[in-house]
Give the backbone structure.
Amino acid sequence: NAGVMQNPRHLVRRRGQEARLRCSPMKGHSHVYWYRQLPEEGLKFMVYLQKENIIDESGMPKERFSAEFPKEGPSILRIQQVVRGDSAAYFCASSPAGRNQPQHFGDGTRLSIL
Amino acid sequence: KQEVTQIPAALSVPEGENLVLNCSFTDSAIYNLQWFRQDPGKGLTSLLLIQSSQREQTSGRLNASLDKSSGRSTLYIAASQPGDSATYLCAVAGIYNQGGKLIFGQGTELSVKP
């Protein structure tokens, strides 16, 4: 049973470009979460999605960032017009339905902005 | 606003020693508390999840306790091994966020010397 799969593992973009990060949840998991880990900082929640629905986006920056989890296919975190401050590790987690289910994390995407 | 604090920030012990990692949180309105380990350049591995109604959970050499009223959790590692070297993170799921959003502490970096 494959774990949470994130790709790419490393992504380099120039300022002003778009970054698209993908996350395939574990089999049977219908909930997806995105977190960001900035250098020398802890993990910060960004967004919580279920299939075709955003449940909580309280941690998402208001501009340039968007997330989706379509009926078919992986969840996508999109960052438009990237800036140097977007350089970070972005982690995706998934869980089954239910409030007391553990979240299982992928290995992350390391985004570097030149 | 929920805040999670972990003490100490770093810990170095000789192999074979028993040790305790501490986690405190400011808002006791939680669904659960989860302990993770993170190896350098990797994602998070879920170790233990304690529901708010539980006092402790055990897995192998690991034992996690939860005192919700005082806002504290401890992770006890018995007979530590060099392979236990990693950063340990605790995270709480608050009831005001539909259970999806995890609030993380800054972590304890553990080094077990052979």
